[in-house]
UniProtKB/TrEMBL annotation:
Name of the molecule in the record: Fibronectin type-III domain-containing protein
Keywords per UniProt: Membrane, Transmembrane, Transmembrane helix
Organism listed in the record: Sinanodonta woodiana
Superkingdom field: Eukaryota
Parts of the chain that traverse the membrane: 114-138
Length: 149
């Protein structure tokens, strides 16, 4: 059977995924699948939700043997997470992380809408051009009336 993962810890939330760090144990010579289980804190009678990820789906951004394990985001709240490895030989024991607070950061509704600014500037330029043209037309008519009298 595979060995218990050596490390398992929460890193962050990125692109609607929960990102954990995991250091794999020995796989017993066969590809292993990691089974992540989670449940809300204080609800020990609730069923554990399960997400499975194969060993080859882990991302290896580090050179120290720690991999990214990503699961789909779950609703905000405080959760207990545990993971174990399994393969065709069997399962290992679970390793658990401290309770994790999942909280989605609000989207920043700032920034300038470039289209609105460009539209406003364009409209202002058109108004100024119309005023200048009307002024020259009025001046020309006034000059023609003065010359005819």
């Amino acid at each position: 059977a595979p060995s218990v993962p050596k490390k398992f810890y929460f890193i962050n939330i990125k692109d609607d995924l929960l990102v954990f760090g995991i250091e794999k144990g020995f796989n017993g010579g066969h590809e292993q699948t990691f089974v992540v289980e989670y449940q809300p804190v204080g609800m020990s009678d609730a069923a554990w939700s399960v997400f499975m990820i194969s060993e080859d789906a882990l991302e290896d951004p580090f050179t120290n043997g720690t991999y990214y394990l990503k699961i789909p985001k779950i609703p905000d709240g405080q959760y207990i997470f545990k993971v174990h490895a399994e393969n065709k030989i069997g399962n290992c024991s679970s390793i658990q992380v401290e309770p994790v607070e999942i909280k989605t950061e609000p989207e920043v509704k700032g920034g300038t809408n470039v289209a609105a600014v460009a539209g406003g500037i364009g409209a202002a330029v058109v108004v100024v051009v119309i005023i200048v043209v009307l002024f020259f037309i009025w001046r020309r008519k006034a000059s023609m009336l003065k010359n005819s009298s």
